[in-house]
Amino acid sequence: MAASVVVSTSLSLRRTALHHRPSLSSSFFISKTIQCFPPLTTSKPLLLHPRTFLVPTSIRDTDAQTQNDSNSLGEDSATFRLAEQKISSWIYFSAILGLVLYLLNILWIDNSTGFGKPFLDAVSSLSDSHEVVMMILILIFAGVHSGLASLRDSGEKLIGERAYRVLFAGVSLPLAVSTVVYFINHRYDGLQLWQLQNTPGLHQLMWLSNFISFFFLYPSTFNLLEVAAVDKPKLHLWETGIIRITRHPQMVGQVMWCLAHTVWIGNSVAVAASFGLIAHHLFGVWNGDRRLAIRYGKDFELVKSRTSVVPFAAIFDGRQKLPKDFYKEFIRVPYLAVTAVTLGAYFAHPLMQAASFNLHW
Does any domain span residue 48? Predict the structure, then answer.
């Protein structure tokens, strides 16, 4: 893919040049359970940041500051404009969410009608070791989740973006619920390797780490209407907010969550769960970059060159220059929603534990 060479200090000339920029090529997908980056519907999309004015032929054509501000190829993440919201869309979202939870309960969670308990009983029969069963559950979820993600482009061509999103969520969500419930019910059944829960300040440190992890874990919930397929799912090449810190925030968030829970629980079941989850997300880093490179070509390579997998690495070595008002990229409705949900989940821990125990999974 050839890139346009645009050299001008005039805003009008920059905008004119953008209209002659070549289209991007091929298609790709990267995802994570309830938080996916779904693909664009067009085969050759032109994805530009609202503030984009010129596109350099290489990273050396402009300094890092210009690339990160004026020449962003990705989208501005976590934007939410109340004036653009439709009441009807959120009514549909609420109805779909209610229907999904109802069907999930009937078809999977309720022991009298659902398949969740038979599924877990079948997996548990493979080994008497809770660690082995935990790993098998994660392997099943990871295989199905990543497999459906890999087939996404082909699947969407056959049945459409919305239908494939429903299929993806309909298969992934029950498996995720089973894995989480099994972990909650058996988190203290393994071999105790260390006991640090009485260490002063450790609970506060682990709580803070877990709290921060959710800002990394759920960047794709920036548009809940796409998650529920109310809006047509799209593949977003984000380049602001949490993406400035790390190009793979879900992996970073999962590592933080796993380390916090493993240090606190300190047994073999927690270690097994963390090993499986981290391995799955590390695979996602490699596979995600590979697919993005196929989907976006040189545009992704430019974004990749000024971001990093390791948090803050691109910032420390000067490839990512933060704007003066960087903090404003986090003072947005989606991040505030993540804050509220995270706090709610923490205080709801006793309810979650009681509900999981009552399932007898």
Answer: no
